[in-house]
User: Fold this.
Amino acid sequence: MRDVVKSLLGLVALGLAAVVPSLASASDDPDLIFKRSTVWHFLTPDHKLAVYAIDDPVVDGVACHFTLPEKGGVSGMFGVAEETSDISLACRQVGPISFKEKFEQGEDMYRQSRSLFFKKMQIVRGCDAKRNVLVYLVYSDKLIEGSPKNSTSTVPIMPWGDAPALKCGDWLK
Assistant:
């Protein structure tokens, strides 16, 4: 009986550990722009493509849009579907660029769980100092046939109004 109680308490703790971090980052969630059905289901939710926007939390003036598939059906309805790794990404300068703090090459900009266990989508940021371009990479950490699916987008840092263009290389750790 003690073993059963210990197992149940362990599962509850594991569940809380998975939920609490996602609640803490709820304010940093991307904005849903729209969804488009791709496969129709009669009594359960359809498969969809969802387009989201997120502002870079460290670099003001940069916004990224990403599209990812969302599974419907019974598993999607109950939130236990394992989502595919197909994610596209486009980032653009949307205002004057300013840096809030120094950052490392390949630093996480955003992370999102894509399945019940172990699969995460990540958007990371880097700087091509030679060309003064911010580089964003989105990938899923679950390997597909030996290679992760990924997409890259670049944002050349341009002057905005009277403000001169900053150099991203000056903001690398």
Notes: The radius of gyration is 19 Å. The CA atoms of residues 62 and 142 lie 27 Å apart. DSSP finds two helices and eight strands in the chain.
